[in-house]
Amino acid sequence: MLLNNDHSKSIIEVGSGLAQSTKYSFKAKGLDLALKNKILVPKAYLIPQEFWENLEKKIEIKNDLVRQIKNLPLNNDISVRSSFSIEDQTEKSFAGMFDTVLS
To answer: Considering the entire predicted model, what is its pTM?
Structure first.
């Protein structure tokens, strides 16, 4: 499910099946597939790389993203993880190499 009105593909709910595109990381695709198949993993959202590439140029897009994040159905602590397109490839993956600590 896309969670926006004006800027398509700003935030994608992982588990909706929309993260299966080849332009998204293997981590995002794996979590998307797991959630679609009812494997328990934390609720996750994907902000595509092309959105970040345009963010510095367009303050209105940044404001829209902040609004969308504030409107997500979140009721607990969250963690923010980043992934570069070269970080998770079929030849090498850094999945599981880092810990997420909520404080």
So the answer is: 0.50
- For residue 22, give Cα distances in angstroms to 7, 10, 17, 93: 20, 17, 12, 16
d(CA 7, CA 15): 20
Contact present, 19 and 32 (Cβ < 8 Å): yes
Q: Quick one: how many helices (H) and strands (E) in the chain?
A: 3, 2
CB-CB contact of 66 with 11 (8 Å): no
For residue 21, give both structure tokens.
């595109």
Tell me the C-alpha to C-alpha distance, in Å, between residue 56 and each of 51, 73, 101.
10, 26, 28
On the CB side of 19, how many CA atoms lie within 13 Å of its CA? 25
Phi, psi values for residue 52, rounded to 5°? -65, -35
pLDDT, tens digit, 9 for 90 and up, residues 42-80: 888 888 877 777 666 677 777 887 888 888 888 777 776
